[in-house]
Write a structure and sequence with these properties.
The protein is an alpha+beta fold. 52% of the residues lie in helices and 23% in strands. The protein is elongated.
């Protein structure tokens, strides 16, 4: 039950921030906002304030901001209507939703770095047979303090150095063993390892596994800003690479996409790991939501921006007939995608149980 509440809280925050981005810019530009709604289905709460109706609905799997005159059938040519605004002003109304989600993801990463996050130390917990560490005499319980004279305290620092080394290359590993400092030459071996988007890389390895020793790393206010910026940049580049691989068939859509059900299971795992894991999940989801929404597909914010650019080039908006057709295509595409990812999540999380139920 707690996992479900956390899942709904996360989803609601991300949607609320996204819709608030559209809402606040529309208000600042003098566009009338008729409705600000969180969720879909039966209304649980409703309040009218001036020209806007605020509502919370039963199913928190989305939300919307209804602007006056935001479609050609309702448009009357009034000054405070959406379609009365220039393409540039409409762009900012659309773009600010994903932008706030993107900024929120960055803020969560900044907060994580500032309040502290758990990480493994460089204490050796195990040795992989046939690799250089075992051959050179490194033992379980040794603490690695430097590689080729460069000091290391955390497992992530150690990995970054070793991964760049090549097979048969030797590195000087400085260790602390029972209060004594030792320098041991260790031969590197390479192994093919898949990254988070399924791409294989050749990485250098010592042949050790970490000890179950965890410490908390905290960074200063400004250094946390820089770390969060780099994390946001890296995740953005990785996401666009993954989208490129999806488009060219190098990455399977079945293996790389998930929906609300899959996110619920991920949230359940994050909730069991504590606050930092939940904040990290929120950061990743918020950035992913921003990037996904900016794809140039009908219904999505990116699709609206694409047609705004087309209107700017043509000098006129699309006809009512064309606008309806594009919206139908967009709705159909979103429904198909929702069904696909939900089916995929069910197979991924319950496939074995379903198979055993019917076969056995």
């Amino acid at each position: 039950m707690m996992a479900l509440l956390i899942f709904l809280f996360i989803l609601s925050i991300l949607i609320l921030v996204h819709e608030f981005g559209h809402f606040i810019v529309a208000k600042r530009l003098g566009v009338k906002v008729e409705q600000f709604s969180l969720g879909f289905g039966p209304t649980l709460f409703k309040k009218n304030n001036k020209d806007t109706e605020y509502s919370i609905n039963l199913f928190p799997l989305g939300g919307f901001v209804k602007l006056a005159g935001d479609n050609l059938e309702e448009y009357k040519g009034k000054k405070d209507e959406y379609l009365s605004q220039s393409p540039g002003r409409r762009f900012w109304i659309i773009f600010f939703g994903p932008l706030l989600n993107y900024f929120l993801g960055f803020l969560f990463f900044w907060l994580i770095c500032f309040i502290g996050y758990p990480t493994l130390t460089t204490k050796v917990g195990g040795l992989i047979e046939g690799f250089g560490a075992q051959e050179s005499g490194i033992s379980v319980g040794d603490r690695i303090v430097a590689i080729d004279g460069k000091g290391v305290k955390y497992w992530e620092e150690l990995q970054k150095i070793i991964y760049t080394k090549r097979s048969e290359e030797y590195v000087k590993v400085s260790i602390l063993r029972e209060g004594n400092n030792l320098d041991i030459p260790v031969r590197i071996r390479e192994r093919h390892i898949e990254d988070q988007i399924g791409q294989k890389h050749r990485l250098g390895l010592l042949g050790i596994t970490p000890f179950d020793e965890i410490v908390t790393i905290r960074h200063g206010f400004f250094s946390s800003f820089l770390l969060a910026f780099n994390k946001t940049k890296d995740l953005t580049l990785m996401t666009y690479r993954a989208l490129g691989f999806l488009a060219t068939g190098r990455l399977s859509m079945r293996e790389s996409m998930t929906g609300p059900l899959g996110i619920f299971f991920i949230t359940s795992k994050a909730a069991s790991l504590g606050l930092i894991a939940i904040l990290h999940l929120m950061a990743v989801l918020s950035l992913s939501l921003a990037i996904f929404n900016l794809l140039p597909l009908p219904i999505l914010d990116g699709g609206h921006i694409f047609f705004l650019a087309l209107e700017k080039v043509r000098g006129k908006a699309l006809s009512i007939r064309m606008d309806k057709a594009i919206n139908k295509i967009g709705v159909t595409l979103i429904i198909f995608l929702a069904v696909f990812v939900t089916y995929n999540d069910i197979v991924r999380n319950f496939g074995t149980r379903i198979y055993n139920f019917f076969v056995k």
